[in-house]
Amino acid sequence: MKGSFVRPNPLPGFGPAFGLTLTWVSLIVLIPLAALVVRPWSLGIAGVLASLGSPRVLAALELSFGASLGAAAINVPLGLLVAWVLVRGRFPGRQLADALVDLPFALPTAVAGIALTTLYAPNGWIGRLFAPFGVELAYAVPGIMVALVFAGLPYVVRTVQPVLMDLPADVEEAAATLGARPPQILVRVVLPAILPALLTGFAMAFARAVGEYGSVIFIAGNMPGLTEIAPLLIVIRLEQFDYSGAAVLALAMLALSFTMLAAVNLVQQLLARRGG
Amino acid sequence: MTARPHPVPVLAVLAALAALTFLVLLPLAALFAEVLDQGIGRALAAFNDPESRAAIRLTALVAAISVPVNTIGGLAAAWCIARFHFAGRGMLLTFIELPLSVSPVISGLVWVLLFGAQGWFAPVLERLGVQVIFATPGLVLATLFVTFPFVVRQLVPLMVAQGREEEEAALTLGAGGWRMFWHVTLPNVRWALLQGVLLLNARAMGEFGAVSVVSGRIRGQTLTMPLQIEALYNDFQAPAAFAMAGLLALLALVTLGARAMLEWQTRRAVDAQVTPA
Fold first, then answer.
1. Domain count of chain A?
2. Rg of chain B on CA atoms, in Å
3. What CATH number is associated with residue A192?
4. Which of residues 132-191 of A touch B (CB under 8 A)?
5. Which residues in B lie closer than 8 A to residue A81 (C-beta atoms)?
6. Searching chain A, which residue's CA lies closest to the CA of residue B211?
7. Which of A218, B13, B138, B221 has the smallest number of Cβ neighbours within 10 A?
8. A219 — contact with chain B (CB < 8 Å)?
9. Which helix (H) or strand (E) holds A181?
């Protein structure tokens, strides 16, 4: 069974394991995704463009990508701060704080959604503080941002944390000995070292935010054109049995996300080349 | 480790803790406060409702199928990727990790495009009299897609770091393939594997977007626990929704606690191998 494309190796079982893997990947991932790539074109190019050009679709895409960029941009300094404090700080409850960071990974999105809504709704513990000033958090764009920042935070913290941990203290000490002040050390020594990790964290938080559905729909209010995210519009189209319309929007979302990720990848390669 | 040159300012620590409090701790506290407000007795009574019981049973069924399928598939894939060099190895890993960067809604949509009323295989399914979408098989398929990469991601980095010397030694000493697998490979990765299975199970039980697309929301039949939470919440049965959400939040907390312990075990196992005592 062993094809000539595999390098000789005394370990057994490549044939059956590879066969099983290929079957598993094809059935569960590749064939379904192929259906998504093919389906939209049943509308024809003109149909695809018309479907994408409708004001409701454009508004949903703008909201999803705009809010996700914003949330990822908030997550970068916030995640860096949390990671830095967790790595360098010495305070009681540090390990508990460290464990809390993973909660958005593990908490089901529907649970996160109703928990955040309860807290930030006009009668919630935090929403109540803003309501007298006419500021709406839940059922408006700020609520969507809160949900997206919640979902993305662990990605930035967990990518930056190990790099910060490996950063040798003596480099910073040397800089300090040579007369550099803390802000200079941060900008000249620490930031260049963790920039690639920050970018990766940004990209992961962004990708998660664009696709986020469960936590957002509880807190968003879901008004078409105002607080309706793109994944929700996909669901609405499916409920109207508009399969091709749903597939067009889904494919557009994937294409936009992958373009973003490819751009981040490119920046990282440029950084690596300059650094090396 | 030497003393750090600049201790973290108190202000930075407070800011970081405030962020974690407002984003993570308070939402969780608000959720449990809602459960406690109605009284434990009433919260538990919510689970006597036949629809809620059906949702719990369905969630257990979906997890009971998805976890073993994706664990066995993940083990096979990790064996190929971590132990062999072959053409297209990187591409295979990319394909396996693809579901991580796809929206949950899209993870459900792809199955509707295949098996829904206007899907590719709709005529075949109709002839066979099988329903996939708006039924349990669709929920299982959507969950399989979403939880696909979890085991591979835990195993591949560890297996690459461990190298294949021990397995080669077992073979040299005359062990057969399966014996080597049960006595060398599996014990070496057991903690990481268990961690992957825990995360896989937590996601399978908590998935919302992907299953919501294929569910059709038929009460008592195609609602898993997270979907039941939404149904109750939209039905102004908030107390019952919070009770169910509290149960899933507890599952998440237990998963995180167990994972922390397993991570500690894994680190100890790797340290023991790198520097034999």
1. 2
2. 23
3. 1.10.3720.10
4. 146, 149-150, 153, 169-170, 172-173, 176, 182, 185
5. 12, 15-16, 19
6. A214
7. B221
8. no
9. none
The CATH class given to the B40-271 domain equals mainly alpha
For A32, name the nearest residue in chain B, comparing CA atoms only: B110
Among A89, A111, A250, select the one facing B8 at the smallest CB separation: A89
Residue A103 shares a structural domain with residue A74? yes
Find the domain containing A30 and state its range: 11-36
Q: Which residues of A touch B229 (CB under 8 A)?
A: 110-111, 114
In this structure, are A106 and A141 located in the same domain? yes
Tokens (6 digits) for B163: 């190298």
Which of B2, B20, B31 has its CB closest to that of A169?
Answer: B2
Distance (Å) of CA A101 to CA A105, A158, B229, B253: 8, 8, 24, 12
Query: Is A127 found in the same domain as A101?
Result: yes
Q: Where do we find the tokens 């085991």?
A: B151
* Of A84, A77, A271, the residue nearest A167 (C-alpha): A84
CB-CB neighbors (< 8 A) of A115 in chain B: 27-28, 30-31, 245, 249
What is the pLDDT tens value at each position of chain B, 277 positions in all?
444 445 778 899 999 999 999 999 999 999 999 999 988 888 898 899 999 999 999 999 999 999 999 999 999 999 999 999 999 998 999 899 899 889 999 999 999 999 998 889 999 999 999 999 999 999 999 999 999 999 999 999 999 999 999 999 999 999 889 999 999 999 999 999 999 999 999 999 999 999 999 998 999 999 999 999 999 999 999 999 999 999 999 999 999 999 888 888 877 777 776 555 4
Query: Where do the H-state alpha helices sit in chain A?
Result: 14-25, 31-38, 44-53, 55-88, 94-101, 103-106, 109-120, 127-130, 141-166, 169-177, 182-185, 191-211, 214-220, 230-239, 243-275
Contact assessment for residue A113 and residue A216, using Cβ atoms and an 8 Å cutoff: yes
